[in-house]
Amino acid sequence: MEKNGLLQGYIFDNTGVGNRVGWHEVETWKAEEGSLLWLHLDYSHPFVQQWLKERKGLDYLVVENLLSEDSRPRSTPFHTGLLMGLRGVNLNPGADPEDMIAIRLWLDETCVISTGKRILASINNMAIAFEQGEGPRTTSELLTQLCEDVMDRIGDVIDDFEQTFDDFEESLLTKESSTLRTQVSLLRRQIIDLRRYLAPQREALGHLQVSKIDWLEDVDRLRLREVSDRLVRYVEELDSIRDRAVVLHEELASRLSEQINKRMYALSLVATIFMPLSFLTGLLGANVGGIPGSDSRWGFTIFVGIIIGVFILQMLYLKKMRWL
């Protein structure tokens, strides 16, 4: 459903079942006991922008946060509600996972408003859960479930990074260094971009556990603590992969330098061997009078013998010096 910027809309209760609604039902909805509302909106849509600005009970700071183009992960208690910013991995076709999708949330005891622009799989999963009667029963549980789903997908991406890097290490001896260096550099960039958002998200979840929010239930605080601990572990795993990537990159650079040195060494030996021979042939090939042996029929034979002798002496010298 996408009408006038309403991407997802559900009225749900403590049974976990959600009824999908449109703008008409949203306008007539009233915060009653056991009736909760969740809206996911496209913040770039003009109707959504106008609706948020005119909605009663929403402070202008809340509206500004929900409509913000650039949103960093955060958790800020505000009056009786919570301003929240999360980042989820981009699993859309053709997209890079590290190009993370931002979601902005305003939560209070009876209503959750989330905004975004691009499709986030965790939001769609929440809608599916409501349709199947397995959705959250409170706004506290909705926040927790959303954070868990976002973290599960981040964990899957990090597992893929680890597997990819393990494959790089195994193929270190078989692949061309230049090809593997490019792939390792790309993986390092992806890790850096992903970690850039996970670090503040870790702080946001950690701050949420100690925030004084009356409607955030104790069991959900424990679940959020587990989510925060997992995020800490994910950041540490990214740091570990990044460090291993640096070591692998240095190893590849060392191997490439070694290959270049071997080739330069071979070229130097060739030049060393042929330089005296080229000098002799150039000297005796000068088109001037008085060249020794020019009038003798054995002159060429003697000259070839000298060339061979010089070559043999060079090879013996290089072998003695262990340059061969």
Could you please describe the fold and organization of this structure?
- The chain has helices at residues 23-28, 46-54, 60-66, 121-131, 139-170, 177-210, 218-284, 299-320, and strands at 6-12, 18-20, 36-42, 74-78, 81-88, 101-107, 111-116.
- The chain folds into 2 domains: 6-255, CorA soluble domain-like (Beta Polymerase, domain 2), CATH 3.30.460; 265-320.
- It has 324 residues and is α+β, with helices and mostly antiparallel strands.
- Strands 2-1-3-7-6-5-4 form a 7-stranded mixed β-sheet, sandwiched between helices.
Topology (elements, then pairings):
Blueprint: E1 6-12, E2 18-20, H1 23-28, E3 36-42, H2 46-54, H3 60-66, E4 74-78, E5 81-88, E6 101-107, E7 111-116, H4 121-131, H5 139-170, H6 177-210, H7 218-284, H8 299-320
Parallel strand pairs: 3-7
Antiparallel strand pairs: 1-2, 1-3, 4-5, 5-6, 6-7
Helix pairs in contact: 4-5, 5-7, 6-7, 7-8
Mean pLDDT reading? 84
Q: Rg, please?
A: 35 Å
**Through-space gap between termini:** 75 Å
In CATH, what is the class of the largest domain? Answer: Alpha Beta
Q: Could you say what the CATH topology of the largest domain is called?
A: Beta Polymerase, domain 2
Q: What structural category arises from helix and sheet content?
A: alpha+beta
User: Please, how many helices?
Assistant: 8
Biggest sheet: strands side by side, in what order? 2-1-3-7-6-5-4
Write down the secondary-structure element order: EEHEHHEEEEHHHHH
